[in-house]
Structures are given as structure tokens and as C-alpha cells.
Write a structure and sequence with these properties.
With 257 residues, the protein is of the alpha/beta class. It is built from eight helices and nine strands. It is globular. The structure holds flavin mononucleotide (FMN) and iron/sulfur cluster (2 copies). One iron/sulfur cluster binds next to helix 8.
């Protein structure tokens, strides 16, 4: 088994690694950002495929990865995991439909609620205790799902027509175009930016570069919130106008369990 994932701010990586550790303790995960992901896909027949949900849909970077490497999915058995802040009708179904088209067999699906990574919208902010509780519950749910998978009765969250309707009418129809193209809406407050270059190093899209001492966006953003969560000057925003909290998963993980 291999884990293939995309994670903007760490939630999905945490979930897939927890899943793999619980499953057999030896399987590893590879980000789609690493060239090794393709080789790993080719060498493994059983894949856990994980990603965050954006607007009840696939992040553009995930959709492109599937389309660009469609031949890798032929004949694979895939268990899909989608992480989210609150709700996704068919988070796993969004990729399942595409992956089936390219010859994969979808053996199960799991939706995991995690802390919301959108740190520049105040209404989405939760307390430290709430986020710690969310992560604890996520861990419990993952363990439960692994148990079911091992017994040959995998969870099928997000798969099937009822979930499809919930995803479509619950949110996707109203936000349909949001993940269709890469975003050019990233804001960089040049008065705050110190030109450290960190955002450019960590961006999965190579969308940011420092010119004349200030970061600039090239308009090809997959909206992952990684730069926003890591800029030392909180100079970057996307959906909001001010950073209220930088997503720091390490603060929410209870290491005693
Ligand atoms: C642009 C954007 C849109 C999002 N849309 C949704 C959504 O429709 N439903 C939801 O429950 N969570 C939504 N989220 C929250 C993320 O899915 C959630 O925080 C996820 O666990 C982040 O995973 P990561 O840390 O691996 O990137 C959205 C996040 C972003 C950045
Ligand atoms: S991480 Fe922040 S301060 Fe550093 S270059 Fe990027 S925007 Fe500027
Ligand atoms: S610019 Fe920031 S939010 Fe956009 S893809 Fe790059 S790291 Fe993610």
C-alpha cells in the first residue's frame, strides 16, 4: 500500500499518515509535489489517495495531477480520503468519478473533519480547544475506518448518488467556477513583506517570487493557504483581508494518544 496526497497546510498529511500507521505501520506517503509520486503509484496496486476539499470540490492541483497522470490509475485499487473544515457532500466522490473513468477501482471513501485552514476569515476561526477536539475525533474516526477496511467492509463516505446530490446542491453548484481555474486573487501587502522568500520556497505552484525585495504572485494559485499560514509577517491573504490565525496543526495534536 502507498499513500499519495496533497496537503496545503498539513491536515491531509496528518490524516493519511495516521491512516497508514494504523493500517500496517510500514506503508509510507508521498506528496504529489514530489516526482517520486509517479514511480510510487506505478509500483503499488493499492493506493490511499488523499486531499483537502475546496468549495466542495477537488483542488485544481489535484484535478490536474489526475488528468496529467491518468495512465497511472489504470487497474489500481484506490481508497479515497478527503479532509474538510465543515462539510462536503461528496468530497471523495469528486475524484472517484474521474479515477473510475481512468480505470481505477474505488474500494472505499472517508471524510475527515479537520481544523479549517482558511485563516483570513474570522467567522471560520475556532478556539484552540475546539481544534484539539476536532483532531482527536479525526484520529478516532480514521482508526475506526482502518478497522473496517481490514475486516473487508470499507467505509464508503462520499461515494454514491445521495452524496453526489448533497455535494452538488449543498455547495458545488454555487461555487462551481472557484476551482475550475487557478486563482489570481492572492493579495500580498507589500508594506508588510520583508522579502524573505519563504513563500516562494514552499508554494506548490511556484507561484511566488521575490522581485525588488517584495514577493509577487504570478496568478497561478491553487488556494492551498500554505504561504498564508507560514509568512512570518502575515503579509498574504486570499479570501479575507487580514490574517486572524495561521494554521498550525502541531498546536492541535494531542501527542499523548
Ligand atoms: C479555498 C478553500 C476552500 C475550502 N472549502 C471547503 C469546503 O467547501 N468545505 C469544507 O468543509 N472545508 C473547506 N475548506 C477547508 C479545508 O478543506 C480543510 O481545512 C482541509 O483539512 C485543509 O487540508 P490541508 O491542511 O491538508 O490543506 C476549504 C479550504 C480552502 C483553502
Ligand atoms: S513569506 Fe511573507 S515576508 Fe517573506 S517574502 Fe513571502 S510575503 Fe514577503
Ligand atoms: S500562492 Fe500560496 S496559497 Fe497559492 S498555491 Fe502558492 S502557497 Fe498555496
Amino acid at each position: 500500500m502507498i499513500g499519495i496526497y496533497f496537503s496545503g497546510t498539513g491536515n491531509t498529511k496528518y490524516c493519511i499518515d495516521t491512516f497508514l500507521k494504523e493500517y500496517d505501520g510500514s506503508s509510507s506517503s508521498v506528496s504529489i509535489e514530489e516526482p517520486a509520486a509517479i514511480e510510487a503509484m506505478k509500483e503499488n496496486d493499492f493506493v490511499v489517495f488523499a486531499y483537502p476539499i475546496y468549495y466542495s470540490n477537488l483542488p485544481k492541483i489535484i484535478r490536474d495531477f489526475i488528468e496529467e497522470h491518468k495512465e497511472c490509475f489504470l487497474g489500481k485499487k484506490i481508497f479515497i480520503m478527503a479532509t474538510m473544515g465543515l462539510f462536503s457532500g461528496d468530497g471523495t466522490g469528486c475524484s472517484a468519478r474521474l479515477l473510475r473513468k481512468y480505470g481505477a477501482e474505488i474500494i472505499g471513501g472517508l471524510h475527515i473533519k479537520m481544523p479549517d485552514c482558511i485563516g483570513d476569515v474570522k467567522t471560520l476561526k475556532k478556539s484552540l480547544e475546539q481544534n484539539q477536539q476536532i483532531v482527536k475525533e479525526a484520529k478516532r474516526k480514521i482508526k475506526d475506518a482502518v478497522g473496517k477496511l481490514k475486516k473487508g467492509k470499507p467505509t464508503r463516505e462520499g461515494l454514491g448518488i445521495i452524496y453526489h446530490i448533497a455535494g452538488l446542491f449543498g455547495q458545488r453548484l454555487w461555487f462551481y467556477n472557484k476551482t475550475k481555474v487557478y486563482s489570481d486573487k492572492l493579495n500580498i501587502d507589500k508594506s508588510k513583506c520583508i522579502g524573505c522568500g519563504l513563500c516562494g520556497k514552499i508554494c506548490p505552484m511556484e507561484n511566488l517570487k521575490v522581485t525588488n525585495g517584495k514577493a509577487e504572485s504570478k496568478g497561478k494559485c491553487t488556494m492551498c493557504y500554505r504561504c498564508i499560514s507560514n509568512c512570518p509577517k502575515q503579509a498574504i491573504t486570499l479570501l479575507g483581508k487580514e490574517v486572524y490565525e495561521q494554521c498550525r496543526l502541531e498546536n492541535y495534536i494531542d501527542k499523548s494518544h
